[in-house]
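Hi V.,

You were right to ask for the full record rather than a summary. Here it is.
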Amino acid sequence: MPRTASCSCGQLRIEVNGELRGVGICHCLACQQRTGSAFAALASFAAPFRVTGTATEYLRTGDQGARFRFRFCPICGTTLFHTEEGEEGHVSVAVGAFADPAFPGPTVSVYDCRRHPWVILPPGTTAFDKDPP
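Predicted structure:
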């Protein structure tokens, strides 16, 4: 089933047609700064996906050397999605950008070592101190 996520102003959109691979939350300091929140909630989808609108990109290197290309709206600033270099077969989309309260919850939590103590994980969530191996 295709799903569409958009930025706050609607200029940038991504339609994902591939299978939902999983939903996770990241508590790393880079994601906290990027989102302005205590964590980032991301949904990973298999290709194909289609982007409409204009995006600005920001390339960040993770703790283990992976390079992530974040795309955000140059008008409203919403970080909508990102891809990992060398992993072109999937895309990670900000869960909130789907504007769907019924969207599936996270099953994985990464960088739990940086999780704010008041953030309570949903029951059954698998937590990793940093990135999983």
